[in-house]
Amino acid sequence: xxxxxxxxxxxxxxxxxxxxxxxxxxxxxxxxxxxxxxxxxxxxxxxxxxxxxxxxxxxxxxxxxxxxxxxxxxxxxxxxxxxxxxxxxxxxxxxxxxxxxxxxxxxxxxxxxxxxxxxxxxxxxxxxxxxxxxxxxxxxxxxxxxxxxxxxxxxxxxxxxxxxxxxxxxxxxxxxxxxxxxxxxxxxxxxxxxxxxxxxxxxxxxxxxxxxxxxxxxxxxxxxxxxxxxxxxxxxxxxxxxxxxxxxxxxxxxxxxxxxxxxxxxxxxxxxxxxxxx
Length: 278
Ligand code: AMP
Fold this sequence. Notes:
It contains 10 helices and 9 strands. By secondary structure, the chain is α/β, with parallel strands linked by helices. The protein has 2 domains: about 1-175, Rossmann fold (3-Layer(aba) Sandwich); about 185-275, 2-Layer Sandwich (Pantoate--beta-alanine Ligase, Chain: A,domain 2), CATH 3.30.1300. The structure holds adenosine monophosphate. Adenosine monophosphate binds near residues 36, 39 and 146.
């Protein structure tokens, strides 16, 4: 595995692969890798001749009082994992490489970014689309892999790629969970053993809400019941727990199209998100 920190080197490596006729997959991450990230890498490995993984903790997608400064960093272990998984290039640029002095361009996807995490983390998705647009332009890959765990992010990135005619196919990868149902997340590292015992309740509540809605309960009632259950188990705050359409993220009361239940909730210092198909 080759470690690359400069954009021009990444471009030249990928151009060399292209000359040889190789297909290329890219897996953007913020590091602190777990089995969820590795499932994206595995999907990329299976569908492409060459795989690039990026590690960049993007400052522009964090709010002022969020965890940018304390975001977990397990760099040595990340490198070992990626190498063992057969990744060809780890692209890990410095902040100044991505945002040089005078950087002033923003990428904004309207509409899809107003609800859910967009409402509770204003500006978050503007940072996500800004950095993902740049990373896709730098990698020039055939395919890019994104986790369904961050469903709204996946939806927003797909819309951006479509709207801006970026020539990379966005490939969704199912959420990897612990045996107790907890969606794997770098932020689970913030949780105490006691909180780790409570955390799976979020996924369980989403599954129950999805089941209730499928059984005919109105979505608002099912989501209110699930919110109460999450708060009762020890989560401090629920930012949202809502049923929305899978593609357009529109609210629905009686789903007649593909829908999902989405939630974000605070446990100790962690803000956990998850979603479940109805
Ligand atoms: P992050 O490093 O948290 O920004 O995540 C990088 C990529 O990994 C994103 O596309 C996430 O959706 C994806 N991802 C994170 N956790 C999981 C998981 N448990 N299962 C599948 N994909 C995941």
